[in-house]
Design a protein that fits this description.
Layout: E1 7-16, E2 21-28, E3 32-34, H1 35-45, E4 60-61, E5 67-73, E6 84-90, E7 96-98, H2 101-104
Antiparallel strand pairs: 1-2, 3-6, 4-5, 5-6, 6-7
Length: 105
């Protein structure tokens, strides 16, 4: 049995300027990334067990040039690690707004 993905066609690239690496992930329909996706980005962008760079280092941008950041969200009953990350986009007036995937596709 295969697991159905809730990811959309919108892919973003998360970079590590420290290691000069990048990894593409597909944003879910609700504008979030799962903890597994972030773990994969960190593993692919760094992969060194002794390194503390976090795998996502430096400013992050959408393909259209708008700046993005990731905001961790903890699910019910999880105190140790975020279960999802909301992709926030910087608007023209400088406010951070959740990414609206339907508008980007």
């Amino acid at each position: 049995m295969t697991k159905q993905s809730t990811a959309t066609g919108l892919a973003i690239t998360l970079r590590s300027q420290f290691h000069n690496t990048s990894c593409r992930v597909r944003v879910h329909a609700d504008g979030t990334l799962s903890a597994r996706q972030i773990a994969r980005v960190r593993r692919e962008n760094c992969g060194q067990s002794y390194c503390e760079c976090g795998g996502i280092h430096g400013p992050q941008y959408l393909n259209d040039g708008r700046k993005i950041m990731l905001e961790p969200r903890w699910g019910a009953g999880t105190n140790d690690a975020p279960s999802r990350y909301v992709v926030l986009v910087r608007s023209g007036d400088g406010d951070w707004q959740p990414l609206r995937v339907a508008e980007q596709s």
